[in-house]
Specification:
SusD-like_N, 35% helix, Serine Threonine Protein Phosphatase 5, Tetratricopeptide repeat, two-stranded antiparallel ribbon, SusD_RagB_dom, TPR-like_helical_dom_sf, globular, mainly alpha, 23 helices, RagB/SusD family nutrient uptake outer membrane protein, 682 residues
Length: 682
């Protein structure tokens, strides 16, 4: 009997047999065993087949990109205000329909492509046994990763059998219903563990976008964290357990009982990544850091010494402190293309610098100031996100405290103060609310009056003097703010993250590697999962390869292994002991740490859903600066009065916790059920 390997039930049979003219995909070969043997006994064709399996990670499966692809990158932290504003409004108000921006069929195409590869790679004797094992492990990884992307977006999905399906069977017999959330996670976990056994710890320079052992274990940790989170692990007394998320037979697909052990498993999985060996008896991954410097160059200010906290400030980086690093440049360089993938010790998985047409390069073009950088001013930051960043000393920012302590008439940096460098990162005329914030703030936020380096402008003819210029977001014709028409920053706050000092749309934008999974996230997973364990609870959990056993409990010293590394690289003090000791306080701090550290990395949208915080956070109105105010003595202070942004409405309903399944998929698979709140028919 001929088989379809991992046939996507959500794709019409007529579409399955369509041959792709220039790609080695399964649609072209699955009917002919001889053809498959021809493919998998040829080295070049085999490699091309695997490359095609990877190709579906682009498009709507990108995790960090511009709005046209990764609209979920725009949660309550950053927004899109460009020419496609209607699309953004539709997204933010939940008024889109069941046909909206699907990655379902593309993911299952990738799953099918990888599955056929796994079934046939062993017949290719032109690869060594070790090479075949690596290639199979890559296919196993990418197949499980597609399932992960589906689970995170749609919730529980059908898990298709490895042995394949009989494509000659009746249409009704080909229908498969959804597996439960826990079953999906168990499958992803088991597949990632199998992949990890044969994936290498490191890749050659020309294979940086291929998964490593660390990538498999990190993806496993992320999936286990989601399984442990409130969306699928409701605490006792939880009112809404998504009991109406059911399969074709009416079985609930979401966990209905709380299980603390899930948190312990997630913590152990994160530790597996943390413990991976590196060179010279070190660890495979660490947070990138750059040494401090007293030398200022265009686009690269001299290091501003981090806060003297009596802890991190008394130790060098190698001793566990931040006294000899530049936190600002350390964080900025991770994202802006300054580092090649092989130079970045915290990049665990990435699609690399080639993410298709709608890549981070295109995103940065839309972040660029219109006048100085020939950009769009289309992507901005909400005032909620801007205010979330800590102060220089690690305390929380409070606008009212600023207004109470900084008197009228002294709220803008004077010329004398600007020339003297009284307020690091701030030049003349900048609102002092932006003074003395943490280093990640200045690496991420484009506030009114901040300096855009735009160093490559110097290589142009007409704009060679537009280098290291202050951007102006006040109302006016000759500004990058509102001028009565066109694209502008609707919050009066832009985004500097991902921007390299050389970047300018008048010359070029440096390529950037997508930060799909970073080591900082793994550290935060570890701390979050440990915090959720009850005092006195302890679990013995084997490491991923069984070589050791972890004793997992709510150990503050272990929680610090996650938090302290992130905080010291960021140049801010550690949490206080009382904050570590109080589970609820720590949870709140942890959520804020993820909001800041992972800003604009495609995490916030899904974090709010797994925590079940979306109904509160995404229902809040969007506020920004009063962009109608000009740079006059009478109006410039009013610019900083928060106002609701009418053009950026937001709303949340319960159905928005999970993406809808398209009507076409539901028609093709009679056993496929819709997500709660969405419809079945056109």
């Amino acid at each position: 009997m001929r088989k379809i390997y991992k046939l996507c039930i959500g794709i019409a049979l007529s579409a399955i047999i369509v041959a792709c003219a220039d790609k080695l995909d399964s649609d072209k070969y699955f009917k002919d065993r001889r053809s498959l043997e021809d493919v998998f006994t040829d080295k070049e064709n085999t490699e091309e087949w695997l490359a095609h399996a990877y190709s579906f990670l682009n498009g709507y499966n990108l995790e960090v990109s511009m709005m046209l692809n990764t609209i979920t990158n725009f949660a309550d932290d950053i927004y899109f205000g460009g020419n496609s504003l209607a699309v953004y409004k539709e997204f933010k108000t939940g008024t889109y329909d069941e046909s909206y921006r699907h990655s379902w069929s593309e993911s299952y195409k990738g799953i099918r492509q990888a599955s056929i590869f796994i079934q046939h790679i062993d017949m290719n004797t032109k690869f060594t046994e070790e090479e075949r094992a690596d290639l199979k492990a890559q296919a196993r990884f990418v197949r499980a990763y597609y399932y992960w992307l589906l689970l995170r977006k749609y919730g529980p999905v059908p898990l298709l059998p490895d042995e394949g399906l009989d494509y000659t069977a009746s249409y009704d017999d080909l229908a498969i219903q959804r597996s439960s959330y826990d079953e999906c996670v168990e499958y992803i976990e088991s597949e990632m563990l199998l992949a990890a056994k044969d994936l290498p710890l490191n890749r050659a320079l020309n294979q940086g976008a291929r998964p490593t052992r660390g990538a498999a274990l990190a993806a496993r940790a992320r999936a286990l964290l989601y399984s442990a989170s409130p969306i699928n692990n409701p605490r006792p007394g939880e009112a809404d357990k998504f009991s109406d998320m059911v399969d074709y037979d009416g079985n609930c697909l979401m966990s209905q009982e709380y299980n603390e052990y899930k948190w312990a498993k997630a913590a152990a999985a994160a530790r597996d990544v943390m413990e991976l060996p590196g060179e010279n008896n070190g660890r495979r991954y660490e947070l990138y850091h750059k040494k401090a410097t007293d030398i200022a160059e265009p686009g690269y200010p001299a290091t501003i010494a981090p806060y003297q906290d009596g802890d991190f400030s008394t130790k060098t980086w190698n001793e566990g402190g931040y006294s000899d690093i530049d936190p600002y440049e350390s964080y900025r360089s991770v994202f802006n293309g300054a580092l090649a993938m092989y130079q970045n010790p915290e990049l665990i998985f990435s699609r690399g610098r080639n993410q298709g047409g709608n890549s981070l390069v295109e995103m940065v073009k839309l972040q660029m100031p219109r006048t100085l950088g020939n950009g769009s001013n289309a992507y901005g930051m909400t005032i909620k996100m801007c205010d979330a960043y800590y102060m220089y000393d690690g305390s929380e920012f409070n606008r009212q405290t600023f207004l109470d302590t900084c008197q009228v008439g002294n709220r803008f940096v004077t010329k004398k103060e600007g020339e003297a460098g009284t307020y690091p990162h701030l030049k003349k005329g900048v609102w002092k609310e932006y003074a003395w914030r943490e280093p990640r703030f200045y690496a991420s936020v484009s506030f009114n009056g901040c300096v855009w380096p735009l160093l490559k402008n110097a290589e142009t003819v007409d704009y060679k003097n537009d280098v290291e210029k202050q951007v102006n977001y006040y109302y006016g014709i000759n500004t990058d703010g509102f001028s009565g028409t066109g694209v502008y920053l609707r919050s009066g706050i832009g985004i500097m993250k991902y921007v390299h000092p050389d970047d300018t749309n008048r010359k070029e934008i440096k390529a950037k590697a997508e930060p799909a999974i970073r080591f900082a996230e793994i550290l935060l997973i570890y701390a979050e999962a440990l915090n959720e364990l009850e005092d006195g609870s302890s679990y013995d959990i084997s490491s991923w390869d069984g070589s050791t056993t972890y004793s997992v409990s709510r150990d503050i010293n272990e929680m610090k292994k996650g938090i302290r590394q992130v905080r010291r690289r960021a140049g801010v003090p550690d949490y206080t002991m009382s904050e570590y000791q109080d589970r609820d306080v720590f949870r709140k701090k942890l959520k804020r740490e993820r909001q800041i550290e992972l800003m604009a990395e495609g995490q916030r949208y899904f974090d709010l859903r797994r925590w079940k915080d979306a109904e509160v956070e995404e229902s809040k109105k969007n506020y920004g600066c009063n962009f109608y105010m000009s740079d006059t003595e009478e109006q410039r202070e009013q610019f900083y009065t928060p106002i609701e942004i009418a053009d950026l409405p937001t709303a949340f309903s319960r159905k928005l916790y999970f993406w809808p399944i398209s009507h076409d998929e539901l028609k093709r698979n009679k056993r496929l059920t819709q997500n709660p709140g969405w419809t079945y028919n056109d």
